[in-house]
Amino acid sequence: MQKTTKPLNKLKKSLIYLSSVVLLAGCATGQLGKNNSGEYKNGMVVSAHPEASQVGIDILKKGGNAVDAAVAVQFALAVVYPNAGNIGGGGFMVYRGANGEINALDFREKAAASANRDMYLDAAGNPIVDKSLYGHLAAGVPGSVDGMVEAHKKYGKLSWAQVLQPAIDLAQNGFKITKRQAEELNSLHRKFMEFNPNGTAFVNLESTWQENGIMVQTELANTLKLIQEKGRAGFYEGAVADSVVAEMQRGKGLITKTDLKNYHSAWRKPITGNYRGYKIITMPPTSSGGIALIQLLQSVESFPLKRWGHNADSTVQVIVEAERRVYADRATHLGDPDFYAVPQQQMLSAEYNKSRMANFNWAAATPSSAVLAGEIKGAEHEETTHFSIVDHDGNAVSITTTLNGSYGSLVAVKGAGFLLNNEMDDFSVKPGAPNMYGLVGGEANAIAPNKRMLSSMTPSIVEKDGHLFMVVGTPGGSTIITSVFQTIINVIDFDMSMQAAVAAKKFHHQWLPDEVYLEPDALDSLSVQKLRAKGYKLEVRGPIGRVDAILKNKWGNYQGGADPRGDDKAIGY
Ligand code: GLY
Questions:
Q1: What's the pLDDT tens digit per position in 255-274?
Q2: pLDDT, tens digit (0-9, with 9 covering 90-100), for 272-329
Q3: Element (H or E) spanning 267, and its range?
Q4: Dihedral sign computed on CA atoms, order 488, 92, 221, 84
Q5: Which residues, in sequence order, are bridge partners of residue 267?
Q6: C-alpha triplet 288, 293, 295: angle, nearest 5°
Q7: Pocket-testing residue among 457, 478, 479, 546, ligand 1, by greatest number of atoms within 8 A of Cβ
Q8: Ligand 1 centre from 455 Cα, in Å?
Q9: 3-state class (DSSP) for residue 147
């Protein structure tokens, strides 16, 4: 996790706070900035890369629906946003049809059949640093291609060939990389060469990457053509599967042809909950995000956040105390529902979540050591990516997809041109040992053959009075849940526009470590002072979340919220 330990300078904080208030007011009154082009009637796509958003809008304009556009955007992101967009990773989709139908698709990666719970421990039983993070052994069996095939089969309108073509064109003809991408790729040059000694499309062997340099990915284009031609068999069987297995043999990884052939995504029943009259539709386990999001909303619902104000000390205190309790539950009770009986019903009960807040003390921070999971009867990169889409008919798709770390395991499959994930690190490698996000876990999320690792990804859709209201999600590892939560309350409690809610400064707490992370200037100096006096350990760190969201306003227009923390882009028509 990126963070600095510099103490907050009071005067500087107050001055910057004033300017951030002016900035927020500007956003709220319609100054949308470079990432966002306004309000639209017909449809909207918001994603982490302008080229991918354009692909989605073009598909909608050709008569495709939100799922066609989503499939096209997922494949386009695998080309133009390779640090998190992927075909070698996995993700989740939450869907709401214009007719009110809701659904959720779990295309999360799985552990290989030969995985075992101690595979990242040394002889003394301690986690081996980086073994679950880099290289071939860090990869789970990819789910994204099967997920897209399933989503398209169930809801798609355009042909499979049509939705694949834009990504193939981008890979074959190349695309212009952004300044941010050029810098990231240059900084990873040595690491890429370590895991891919023959080079990859992501390594510039002649010079350094520059903004607007063209990245061509011929091998990836060929892989995408096979997927276009053969559907899931183009990836999970044949030449691509052979390349993955050869790659595993080269780097002592575990994924076999049988693992690939046996991979299937799962349709699941979305989680729903209510908050101040709005209905939240979100992702069930294997994500922890949906349950935790509803728990957070239920925990704060009885408090007058609006009266206290956005990021005021009382607002922050209540939210941090709710987060402490919810993340303690996450560590104990959540894992792959196909392997572990997640006590979902009780965790989602409003009485339960209210009772969890009963021992919270206004006078002093509750130490995390005093908080256990509830009794239930019976600096690192945070590179995931999210996109939100609404089509002309009002169908909505919310997809969060990931390789886990930036560029995943850093292993590009030779001959096939795509990066493998390092999602195995999202398992609890050893009960109580923190993963790359500092998250701890236990039995529920222990490694087992063919099991899915727990995720924080929280693609969500909000309804008001039975109608679509918001489509929202973000990358950010463990901060995903708290960023989605804050974006929702920024709109519902603090009356922000979609763009202002996305841009607003965020903070994060996750039980362990017992610290509260703040984006620079997230709180005014007086609030910082008051919270510190009560024992809250506040740490300023880098950006939190990168939310891409859509709001349907009261005039029926779609407002995009494209996160200014990245190159994200909202395009409507
Ligand atoms: N890899 C981040 C997550 O799934 O939560």
A1: 999 999 999 999 999 999 99
A2: 999 999 999 999 999 999 999 999 999 999 999 999 999 999 999 999 999 999 999 9
A3: strand 266-268
A4: positive
A5: 105
A6: 100
A7: 457
A8: 4
A9: helix
